[in-house]
Design goal:
The protein is α+β, with helices and mostly antiparallel strands. It has helices at 4-11, 60-73, 78-82, 86-92, 101-122, 138-144; strands spanning 24-29, 36-43, 49-57. Strands 1-2-3 form a three-stranded antiparallel beta sheet. Helix 2 packs across helix 4 and helix 2 (60-73) packs across helix 5 (101-122). The radius of gyration is 14 Å and the shape is globular. The chain binds FE2/S2 (inorganic) cluster (FES). FE2/S2 (inorganic) cluster is lined by residues 30, 33, 35, 58-59, 61-62, 100, 102-103, 106. FE2/S2 (inorganic) cluster (FES) binds next to helix 2 and helix 5.
Length: 145
């Protein structure tokens, strides 16, 4: 039921880890399944994403979609990263089963949350970016574990 690409990114996820002093960090959660995803961005003065890492506490599709999302935004400008939708992530993985599409949405939201944090810290403006709904604070995460 999963494509080879999904299995590959699940078994060998790219860009797992943390970035110290990130330019932007976003953590999002899905209240229904309880899965949590965090994205770290290292962005240079030209607004290019030099490095990106993720940590995901969630299902296999959540791991695969975060892995693919990090691959898709790496080396892009923040505005280009903003345009990486969950649909693009799904397509890059050759599709996801319908019940797992929300996992790719979490990846899109995590990227947006990290971009939002970057804008808050740097004063940058990204067209079309809104504060992600599922953004969750550190305190809430600690409560959850
Ligand atoms: Fe919720 Fe995958 S089941 S993120």
């Amino acid at each position: 039921m999963y494509t080879e690409k999904v299995m590959d990114h699940f078994q060998h996820p790219r860009n797992v880890g943390e970035i110290e002093n990130p330019s932007g960090m976003g953590t999002v959660g899905n209240a229904k399944c309880g899965d949590i995803m965090r994205i770290y961005l290292d962005i240079d003065d030209d607004q290019i994403i030099r490095d990106v890492k993720f940590k995901t506490f969630g299902c296999g599709a959540a791991v695969a979609t975060s892995s693919m999302a990090t691959e898709l935004v790496k080396g892009k400008t923040v505005q280009e990263a903003m345009e990486v939708t969950n649909k693009a992530v799904c397509e890059a993985l050759d599709g996801l089963p319908p019940v797992k599409v929300h996992c790719s949405l979490l990846a899109e939201e995590a990227i947006h949350a990290a971009l939002w944090d970057y804008c808050q810290k740097s004063g940058a403006v990204i067209n079309g970016l809104k504060k992600p709904k599922n953004d969750i604070s550190e305190e809430e995460i600690e409560e959850e574990y």
